Amino acid sequence: MALKTILVHLADDDQYKKRLKVAIALARRNKAHVTALYVTSPTDARSAMVGRAASARYEETALEDARKKAAELEVDFAAACTAKKVSHRWVMEDGDHLELLEEHARAADLVIVSQSKNRYLEDFFRHQLPEQIVVKSGCPVLIIPRKWRVKTTIASVLVAWRSDREAVRAVRDSLEFLKKAKRVQVLTVSKNNEAEGLPANQLLMYLARHGVDAEHHDQNGGDVGDTIVETAVSEDHDMIVMGGFGQSRLREMVLGSVTHDVLKKTKLPILMSY
User: Do strands 33-39 and 88-93 pair parallel, antiparallel, or not at all (unpaired)?
Assistant: First the structure.
């Protein structure tokens, strides 16, 4: 899939500069357009704020601060895009982050968000933005780790493969990244030396027809999530490509345990599709 429109999630948080830098670098490399969606609503709830009046005052102050921050960031965003000769558009909206990203993703080829914090139990239920946007947007999502040191070039990619719809979608959505990478490794995790579904060599031949020379590594047994994260680090990859498995449980949409585990532990960007 050609990468021509990139939607980057912006807000008054400690990770927005990293997301913006990645978006502009990808746009420049792919001659793509960047839409910066700045959502003024607070990204975190303050548990110390008690009562409706206190919450209302906090939200009003936070909204005013976010709009001031947006005005400053818009200038920096336009200057950075102009300097790199990148087509760009700035959008500022009040509202729910997930709903607004879902809406604007309908006119994008890629969405860029940050990894969730997952510091407290309530974070799991309230702030799982990456997981939910993967399921709801119908668009591939690039998730940027909070502690990742930004690289503007993706030279080595790990494809976490299993023979299902989500993994197939992720591979197809990531072809532009795979074609530009110097190294692509397909990882499978089999049980008792037996892989399920379509053999990995069929995927390798499919990629070869698209000009991607990939290698295959099979890991027998072990925890799948840990294997993906550990292989990505030990093999010195720059990005992980994988499908997101979804199921209905405690909330409208929630990803499966392997996917959630990788998103929680990863130290590398993940391109994920559902």
Answer: parallel
